[in-house]
Each structure stands twice: as C-alpha cells, then as structure tokens.
Amino acid sequence: MEQTLTADEWERLRRFHFARVARRYAVRRGVLRHLLGRYLSIPPSEVSFVYGPQQKPALAEPLAKTGLHFNLSDSGELAVYAFAVEQAIGVDIEDHRDYPDARQLAQRFFSPAETAWLSQQPDEQISLAFLRCWTCKEAVVKALGDGLMAPLQEFTVAHWQTPPGLIWPTAPAGKWSVHLLNPPAHFSAALTVTSPIAAIHEQHFHFRL
Ligand SMILES: CC(C)(COP(=O)(O)OP(=O)(O)OC[C@H]1O[C@@H](n2cnc3c(N)ncnc32)[C@H](O)[C@@H]1OP(=O)(O)O)[C@@H](O)C(=O)NCCC(=O)NCCS
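Above are the sequence and the coenzyme A SMILES. Below is the predicted complex in structure-token form.
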C-alpha cells in the first residue's frame, strides 16, 4: 500500500506519532487508491486528490470529470468506503462503545427532535441509540464536507422513519437520502447522498495486517 502513496501522503504518514496509527492510515489510503483505480481504470498511484476547506478529499481534475464521488470512515478494525456518481456522498462507521453521558452529548450536538427521540429510549439501549443517530448525522456532514464544523443542531435525521428522512429547512443541497448500512456485529454505519438512492451495492472484504 505504501508504494502507491504520494509525497504529501508520506508527509502525513511521518507525522503520526504511533506506528500503528500510521500503518492504518497507509492501509486506509492505499485501499482507497486501489478501489478508485479500479473504478477509473488507472494505476492506484495515479489517482490524485484535492481537499475541501475542511479537508474532505475529492478527485482532482481531470479525474473529477468522471463524476465519481467517494468518502470513507474507519473505526476499530473496520473501514467503510462509499462511492457514488454525480452526487456528494458521506459515510460514517462507529464501533459500539459505551456512552454513559449520551443524554448530555445529545443536548450539545443533536436537534430538539433527535434529543426528544433519545429521551424515549431505555437506559440499557442508550449508547446504541446515541450511536445510531450520531452515525447518521456524521454521514450528513461528511457528504457536505463541513465535518463537525457543520451546525449539527440545526438538522434532524429522522432515522426512526422508513426510509430515514432528513429535516433541514436550510439544507445546502436538494433532496438528501440517508441509509443505515449493515456492518458486522458491534458496529453502526450510515451513508448519505445528496439525491434519491436508486440502488446500493454493499461488498465486504478482509485484509490481514
Ligand atoms: C470529517 C470528520 C467528521 C471525520 O471524523 P472521524 O470520525 O475522525 O473520521 P472518519 O473515520 O469518519 O473519516 C475519516 C475520513 O473522512 C475523510 N474526510 C476528511 N475530512 C473530511 C470532511 N471534512 N468531510 C468529509 N470527509 C472527510 C477522509 O477520507 C478521512 O480519511 P483519512 O484520514 O484517511 O484521510 C472530522 O475530521 C471533521 O469534522 N473534520 C472537519 C473539521 C476539521 O477538523 N477541519 C480541519 C481543518 S484543517
């Protein structure tokens, strides 16, 4: 994977303090290059990126003209890569940790409707419920490219509806879709695109590090 990385990616690799974290970045970025290379029919090392104001990576010109968008997320030993054509995409995966302060976190980051939903969840399921909502919100702000700088309390992901709805009166794009993914046990994941979803193809693969 390291052989496919560019000088700026090597620079980032060197800045990581812990070897394990650096190795995970190399694998994460190397796999991204391989997958994009397959979609674009070019060698992984020839994939080139540009970065948004909040560091969201996207394909550089002339590759951007293909209309291929992507996003990725990792947590623990899992990573999720998401690809879409002609529409922004955001994805988030989180492992199931305990959030004893989930209700306080919700007051800080969730909309009133999401906070109200969370308040109805039983204590023994509060961490899972929090994560379910969080992954949806992070997928939305990652599609946008703003990350956690976005006004998280101003929009609601109604993930309790089928299909989940996004309620955002001042949404920066048209019709958004939110989809809850099916990661392996002990993970929650969601993806968002900025138009209706026609079909989703999910593939799982394993790397031994
Ligand atoms: C985007 C963000 C929510 C990701 O949080 P996270 O849970 O730690 O990370 P995830 O595993 O879900 O996603 C990481 C991947 O998302 C992508 N990404 C980075 N910034 C992104 C952004 N602003 N929007 C969407 N995707 C982004 C990258 O591919 C990154 O992978 P990489 O580290 O291999 O480059 C968080 O980093 C953020 O809010 N960033 C914006 C604010 C900021 O820090 N800006 C820096 C200005 S210099």
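Residues 25, 28-29, 54-57, 71-74, 90, 92, 138, 142, 145, 147-149 surround coenzyme A (CB under 6 Å).
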